[in-house]
Structures are given as structure tokens and as C-alpha cells.
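In practice, a research group might receive sequence data for several interacting partners and want a quick structural hypothesis before committing to experiments. The following worked case mirrors that situation: the sequences arrive first, and a predicted assembly follows.
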Amino acid sequence: MERYSGFGLFKHALSHHENWQRHWRNPTPKKRYDVIIVGGGGHGLATAWYLAKEFGITNVAVIEKGWLGGGNTARNTTIVRSNYLWDEAAQLYNHSLDLWKGLSQDLNYNVMFSQRGVLNLAHTLQDMRDVQRRVNANRLNGIDSEVVTPERIKEIEPALDTSKRARYPIMGASWQQSAGVARHDAVAWGFARGADSLGVDLLQNTEVTGFRIRDGKVLGVHTNRGDIEANTVGCVAAGNSGVLANMAGLKLPLESHPLQALVSEPLKPILNTVTMSNHVHGYCSQSDKGDLVIGAGIDGYLGYGQRGSFPTVEHTLQAIVEMFPMFSRVRMNRQWGGIVDTCPDACPILSKTKVKGLYFNCGWGTGGFKATPGSGHVFAASLAKGEMHPIAAPFSIDRFNTGALIDEHGAAGVAH
Amino acid sequence: MFYIFCPYCDERREEEEFHPSGQAHITRPADPENCSDEEWGDYLFFRDNPRGIHHELWVHRLGCRKFFNITRDTTTYEILETYPMGERPTVTAERAGVRQEQGVQTADGGWQTVGARPENSKLNEETPS
Ligand SMILES: Cc1cc2nc3c(=O)[nH]c(=O)nc-3n(C[C@H](O)[C@H](O)[C@H](O)COP(=O)(O)OP(=O)(O)OC[C@H]3O[C@@H](n4cnc5c(N)ncnc54)[C@H](O)[C@@H]3O)c2cc1C
Ligand SMILES: [Zn+2]
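A structural hypothesis for the assembly, expressed as C-alpha cells:
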């Protein structure tokens, strides 16, 4: 792998940037791998990278039916934070946040991780109680988090309407300074390039159409390019996880919903941070390119069409204009949707299944981008050892029958 | 935008008057005291999540406020029938079609689905592994 550096940039300038190496190979599938990862989104690619780098398992294939990182990884609004309420979730997301900090160096790829902070606004007394409770829980878990007043919010984000005239006046917020945003595509590409350089085969335009299972053990997968064998298969397919589970005769407690986002025309720098509001239900940040990155809720019905409905666009922008009245005349440039796999307790599933060797990493729903490195790391550890990593263990699929749910709806109301 | 036929109001109304409420035809356990953890979990949390035909519960929230059922394709978003509570669907995954008297209830325009795009052949050239 050609390492990127300032010197390299200079060197390539001399040949008019025409000789850069490809990011990854486009290999012919082998007959057999040690581990197959189904789904080449951020989580699948991160899993492959950590498998190769930390656990020395390099005979790995990532099977992706479209192109790398073209699922929710390419469609999300890139908010990274770890201020979740419950211990299990806090550990998982904070593990991820720790990995984010060194990720660009680890991957030798600029993922543009920017710790510009996240405000979660409170507009009612109950909101304030929830914020205080969550901030206290965060601090006990060593997560930087504080309750801020409307005056302080005004300092952090002057564009917000913090006046009493607002229809839903802001009473306070939680503030996580170490949270922020990252460049979604770069995350997928960085992990992909890294994994490829360590020998992982990235198989694009290859769709898993079934599993080979005998005596309760997984033996491999069927694809549109033939059968591929492996005794360990990890499915990381976000909105399509239920479809895959079905192929293996399993059922998951997931529902697939469209979630959409929009971006405005590029503006001069106006936002300092990421602002989210559960109550008026919208959130907004500004990309380095200048566009406002906006999102809100899911479409309430099941859907696999990667596009959201018009009523949801309208509600989303109502919320944004309520928070930032000055944006009322900004024009929106693009709108799109991804298919999110929502889970009843708003927490992911990282789990073994009844089929030996077949694992699922899914249920990240509307908020899994922030977990990309952490999820990949603990999932890789679990696949490598055959035992779920301690951080992943509480997220077993069994919790829906034992009752040990991790109810993050409070922290994840606007869950992104 | 859906344009939904409410079987109680007997007319088509805009999507925003309605609210989806998840999978239809889920029956409460007959003998709750004696359900296993497995059965409770399944009843509470595990839902069908198909690509394709799905039967779902909706409520005409800003109209007659009654619950009713919809059979819808989750990939094309076509509504193939709506029917009152207590009735069974006439369109199913095995028996495709659309209820004649109602017709397909969806707005124009195709829905893009997950996956393939026109490929750039050069990027797809195979290199030896
Ligand atoms: C609009 C929107 C906004 C969001 N905002 C945020 C946010 O601000 N912060 C945050 O933390 N999270 C956010 N999320 C959630 C986040 O995007 C996801 O949780 C995360 O990206 C999931 O990553 P993944 O790798 O698991 O899934 P994906 O990136 O979706 O990857 C799954 C891959 O599996 C492939 N696949 C599926 N079926 C098959 C098959 N049969 N064979 C082969 N391949 C298959 C798909 O093609 C896809 O590429 C948002 C999501 C959306 C849609
Ligand atoms: Zn009605």
C-alpha cells in the first residue's frame, strides 16, 4: 500500500496526479475463506480490517452486493457522540469514540474526524430532567458531558433561537464537547484500503442469496457469483439483515424503515457544532463544504425503497426553522434515504445465532455511524475468538426473550 | 405520497391523515399466564420484515380514527388493498394481485431499491488476488 503523506502529495504533483495507486484490488472470489463478512458498509469493512490487523486473520472476504459503503454508510448525517444513558451502551459507544480519535493515523487516511461538540436540546421540564439524568449517568461512566444553560448555548451556537419567543423555548441542553462529525465515505474507503492492503478480498457486485448450513453449522454462502465456503460468517447488512436472517431460517426483532437526510446549498460558515432536538425533532450541522446537513425521523412504515416520503421532509424542515429561524430561506440541494434496521430497544444486536459460526451485527438503526470503529473492533474480536467480546456480550439477541433490554429510546429519540 | 382508501370512510385520503402502527394480525397469547419467555419475546418484539408483500395496521388518525389493514409492497410501495379489522387479506405473497374495486394506491414515480447501479466497467476489471 502506498502511504499517504505531504511528501507523497508533492511527488505526485510532479506527474500531475495521474499516477496514484488504486485504493483496493478487485479480486476474483476464492473458493474458501476463514471468515466471510456479508455487507461492505463501514461496519463490515471495519470488522475485516480489525480481523486482519489485530487478530492476524487475513484470509477474509467482504461480500457486498452493490459498491463499498453505498448503504447507510454513504447516506448518514455523520454525527459521532457517546452520551448514551445505560452502562452497556455507554461502554460500546465510548469505546468507539476512543478509536475515532486515532483513526486517521491508524488508517493513514483522513477521515476528517472533527470534535466540534454536540448539543442535545431540552424544551420542557421533563426534557430537562432527562438531560440531567443522562449527563449524570455519562459522568459516572467517564464520558465528558455537562448540562448547559440557554446563555451558554447562545455562546456555543449563536444561530440558534434561544429566545423566550420561540414556540418551544430552549430550557437547556446536554453538551458533549468530544463529540462531532466525520467524513462518512472516507471512513468506508479508509477501512477498505487498509483491509485490502492486509490481504482481505473485497468482493463488490456480489450478492449473498443464501447460506450453506449443515447440522446446525454454517459452511458458507451462495452468491450470484457461485458458492463461497467459510466456517465463520458475520452478517453486517443494516436494513437488509432481516432478509439475510430469513435465508438462514432465523428471525430478528428488526423493522426496516426509510430514514432520510437533506443538504442545503453551500453557505459561508455559520454553525459551530451539531445541534439535535428530540422535542421539535430535527438536527443540523454544517459540513466543511458549507452545506447544512439535516435530518430527523424515520418514515413510520416498513420500506426498502431508499428514499423518504414528502411529509417527512416537510416535518424535518419545520423543526429546523423552529430552531434556526434564519434558515427559513435557505434552499435545499439534495435529499435521499437509507434503510435503517430499528430494534425495539434502540440498541444494536451483536450476537451469535442458533446456527453455529453464523453471527449478526445489526440493529444499529438510525445511529450506527458513530459506532463504526468500535463495532468493527468488538465484532472482529468475537469472530476471531468464537466468544462474544465483553463489550458486545450484552447486545445478544437473547435479550428479547430474557427481558434484559437496554432501553436507549431516551438518549436516542433523535438517534443519529 | 400515499393516497389511501379508508374502508370505513369509503374514500381515498392523503397519507398525512393516517398513521402506520406496525404488523397486522398479531394475536395476543390466549393463555398469557402460561407463556414461555420464548413466546412472550416473540409476541412482543419479533415482527415480519419482508421485502415484498406486507400486511400492516394503520389508523385513520385525522379522519374517522378507526384502525384498518393495508396490504402493501415494501419495495415498490404499492398499496394493493385496504380492508377493515376482522377481515383477512385477499392479496398475499402467495396470491399476488390487487383488489379490483380499489386499484393500486400510490403516487407516481418509481422507488429506487437497494443495490446495483450502472457500473463503471473499468473499475470492475478483475485483478488477481
Ligand atoms: C439518513 C440517515 C442518517 C443517519 N445519521 C446518522 C448519524 O448522524 N450518526 C450515526 O451514528 N448514524 C447515523 N445513521 C445510521 C448509520 O448510517 C448506520 O447505522 C450505519 O452506517 C450502518 O453501517 P453498516 O455498515 O452496518 O450498514 P450499511 O452501510 O448500510 O452497509 C450494509 C451493506 O450490506 C450490503 N448488503 C445487504 N444485503 C446484502 C446481501 N444479501 N449480499 C451482499 N451485501 C449485502 C448493502 O449493500 C450495504 O452496503 C443514519 C442513517 C441514515 C439512513
Ligand atoms: Zn376513515
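Before designing any experiment, note the following. The interface with chain B takes residues 25-28, 30, 65-67, 70-71, 201, 204-205, 207, 239-240, 242-243, 246, 251-256, 300-307, 309-311, 339, 344, 400-403 of chain A (CB under 8 Å). The first strand of chain A starts at residue 35 and ends at 38.
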